[in-house]
Model the fold of this input.
Amino acid sequence: MPTNSSGSNDREGGDPMSRTPQVGIDHLTLLDVSPPELVTIASETGFDAVGFRVGTAGPGEEPYPMAVGSPMLEETIRRMEDTGVRVLDVEVIRLGPDITRKDYEALLESGQRLGARFINVMGDDADIDRISDNFAQLTTDARPYGLRPLIEPMAYRPVHNLELAVRIAQRSGGGGGLVDCLHFRRCGDNLNYLRSVDPALLPILQLCDAPLAQPTGLPRPRWLPRGQGTDIPHAQLESRAMRLLPGDGELPVVELLAAMPAGIPISVEAPVLSLWETLPPVNIARRARQAVSRLLDEVSNLHSGPRDEQSNPKERNQ
Done:
């Protein structure tokens, strides 16, 4: 089974890909695919790791039966052992006003059994101080399980930018922040601030692409995976189903990756409804992995280090 080490967190001069990163595929990219099958697809398409949706992100979403001892979890582990695919993270814990340990203990147990390293956390409480306190408590509770909580900023939730997420992580006694390319843009975050953050607080990057401007007037899909509701704001609909694969949009993905700590794991979180409707999951995963390879080649070809202030058209839009 995989270990739970946190990996490198330093920023270095020169090539930010001087250490080849672990490359994963997040469950949201193929949420209709069961965890065991996601492991198989990841192995067949060249991914090193996966992220699993063990807890749900909202009402109505149907969870996968991944409790400790369940047949699905044990089959998932068997396929991991057969393929060598590891688990980067499990999600999701929503820090609401009344959350207690019993609300997330089963997820901690499943994450430990899977050998996951991180837990994806969302703040779902208007009281930011209470989110901070609950995140710190979660960090303490998760430590014996070998898991590190990461709080993810989203423009449409109370933790609405990276600076706020970093402050919460700094107060937690060991938690971190989660940078996602789409949310980084929609939150109005910028690369200069990203470069200033303590690298130890940024242990993973989620990759996708999108238009620079927030789309409006998005058509309502007929369905979303696992019973997720479709009558949701455009920002949430884009996030859950209408992103693009890395390199297919306008976000400064190369520059964002170059600004992150060297050698950290990267994971594709790119749910693309149009691909779900036209391609089998293995083909979507293959396209996603090829997109990552092209991205890493571009980063390696950059002549500047991660902290260089050299501008480019995409970065100027940040």
Observations:
- Confidence is low (pLDDT under 50) at residues 1-9, 12-18, 303-318.
- The two ends are 40 Å apart (CA to CA).
- The first strand starts at residue 23 and ends at 26.
